[in-house]
Amino acid sequence: MSTPLYVTLADSQMRVWRSGSGPDLLVLPGLIEAASVRADRLAQALPGWTVTAFDLPGTGGSVTCWAEDIAGLAGLIADAAGRLGLTGCPLLAFDLAAPLARALPAAGWRPDGLLLADAAAAAGWSGRDLRPAPLTPRADGTHLAVLWAHLRDAHILEPSDPSHPAATGAPLPGPADLDAMLRTAAVAPDRYAALWSFCLDALRGEPGEDGEVRADGLEGITRRLAPMAAGRRDAAPPPPARPFADPLRVWHDYADTPHGRIHLRRAGRGRPLLAFQSAPGSSAPLLPLLHGLAPGREIIAPDYLGNGESDKPERTVDIGALADDMLALADALGLDEFDLWGTHTGALVALDLTVRHPERVGRAVLEAPVLIAADFSADILDHYFPPIAADRWGLHLLQAWNMRRDMFLFWPWYRQERAAARAIGVPDAAVLHDWTMGLLASGGHYDRSYRAAFRYDTRAALVRLTRPALICAGPADMLVEGLAEARTLAPAGTTVIPTPATVWYPGQGAQAVRDTIGCYAAFLDGALGAANPHPVS
């Protein structure tokens, strides 16, 4: 399996996927197959190469890299290649990435040989002016079905004749590979559509460059690359990702632990605070927290193993396992002591880590820990977690969209009746799109950390707290009623209060969010709760 990593540019980051061993081969994966899939497939077919495949600017983990023309986009790729130490290596570019590859020398990065794959397909799309239909997020989620159809048809249909299937070419992708590309393209669907148009327009009438070679299929690529391998040095290890010069800017990173590779969002400098997400998506909704708390401390928000962009090991998951993962993460980052912040599932992970390893934890903010009746937990475990699996027609996309949407309409989401209506309101389509993409990134593993929260004995753990803790919840939180029971269970020295907002929920008032983050900061700084261990307001 390919390994993802980030390279930090001046004001953005680019994600790359590395696989294999041997001399360097840089790959621009094209616009219909994910870089992760390309890297894996090429590494299997080319055992003598270290394959480095880029998420193209505006897509996947390179979404923050953007320019408004081919030259600017190529400049970003050239910058990243230079920072990764990829000098004097061959370049393999697929389908519509050819114009980007041809623009790299003018941007300051010159390959030692350019190989174009699937050029005939790109020419066919250009000839009939194939472009994605509008991909701006829609309230009904159907833009995801449009994108899926565009990607699937690009693989299946004759490039110059969309009324017939192509009888030759690479094997057709399965649902999992199509899903990987959809998630790459859909991080910012409007940017993906613009990238497609930039490349398509540049391809028209563009003359070939001296020294470029064309090949189709893995056999053709292997044959063309074989003579280029002789005499080349093996690839050097990639440099680690680094933060931006502005310490308050959020940057992405990975950390290797004995349990798997964990994706991180990071910001700030100072005393470390590990921030744990709610299930089932990624830590992306915690960005308001990172922005609000970063001044004066370092915030590290991981995606759980099995969720978001972290590895997805096959294993049994409970809150104890997730807490062990987070302790392993702290060890990998060299953190001897740290504070904790967690919400919902994350509150239980923080709680479990605190009660089992109090010597490592300074203070812990536990937002809306799960405190519901046993029969309600059983009902949730029976009905809340239908399987989500990539489907050949993309049917899973609307399933995920409507699950996420209904989570804002009803509590629990599957109880679609008037009495279960929530007052929080459905966010706009762009926000709901981001939340849905987090769920899709977790794939078939999405329910494991989620189920763990409803199986955990929160009550038994709360009474074991020995470190200073703040238990809180905002008024819109469906678990806010648990504060009353938390006051009866929490030991002396624990602060239990309502907060003005749930900062990671969309649609919360700006002042309420600021005030809530102020509560977190005051507690973490030791200025809240010392005089009154159980204040009620």
From TrEMBL:
Keywords tagged on the record: Hydrolase
Lineage: Bacteria, Pseudomonadati, Pseudomonadota, Alphaproteobacteria, Rhodospirillales
Any GO molecular function: hydrolase activity
Sequence ranges assigned to domain AB hydrolase-1 in this UniProt record: 273-381
PANTHER family with a match to the protein in the record: HYDROLASE, PUTATIVE (AFU_ORTHOLOGUE AFUA_2G14860)-RELATED (PTHR43798:SF33), MONOACYLGLYCEROL LIPASE (PTHR43798)
Protein name as it appears in the record: Alpha/beta hydrolase
Keyword Hydrolase carried by entry: yes
InterPro entries according to UniProt: AB_hydrolase_1, AB_hydrolase_fold, AB_hydrolase_sf
Species: Azospirillum endophyticum
